[in-house]
Amino acid sequence: MLQHLLSMPQLLLRWLGALGGWSYLVIFALVFAESGLLLLLPGETVVLVAGVLAAHGKLDLPLVMVVAPISAMLGDCTGFALGRGPARRRFVARGRLLVLRAQDAARVKALIDRHGGLAIVGSRFVGVLRTATPFVCGLIDVPPRRFFSYNIPACVVWGVGIAALGDLGGNVWERLHDWVGRGSVLLGAVLLVTSFLWIRLVKRQNSLDSLE
Questions:
Q1: What is residue 100's DSSP assignment?
Q2: Which of 66, 105, 107, 201 has the fewest CB atoms within 10 Å, counting from its CB?
Q3: Is the pTM of this model over 0.70?
Q4: Dihedral over alpha carbons 167, 173, 175, 177 (to 10 degrees)
Q5: Could you report the per-residue pLDDT of 167-190, keeping only the tens digit for each?
Q6: What are the beta bridge partners of residue 100?
């Protein structure tokens, strides 16, 4: 099982290392398509591997830290728009859209109903939820302002944090990939604390707006 898990980053390491400057386009495409086109792609792994390549001087770490969050934001924005647009009718009629099934959407909705904005934040760090949450938020008519107030900080921390994790790992990237899920949880925990403060600020601002 571990050998299977490591085969993907090994392939990406060789592939991205050979592409040079085109690697940034691959990073953008995979991260964007994960949530923007509802495809189960190795978005997190490609950012991690890009960080490893940056540690070896083959990619530019600051540029990876820019490309990853921007592609994540644009992908989530596209997924959100699909949920609010024509894809909504197709999903409701067929009960599925690409990899997303009705029962998956119901689980994500239950998480959002229960945990609100924190579910939007946390989903960026959890596999299939990263793919499904933006679409489901559009599907259930989460207000755009509310969605993006949580989503944008999550994308920034996710993209920068995973790239930095890969860069710090350097030559021990195989072991790091085995631990990336736990690393994401740690990053998520840090973000949850930050998000709590952000939520307080957003609620206070909304209260002030309602008074005006």
A1: E
A2: 201
A3: yes
A4: 80
A5: 887 655 555 555 555 555 555 555
A6: 97
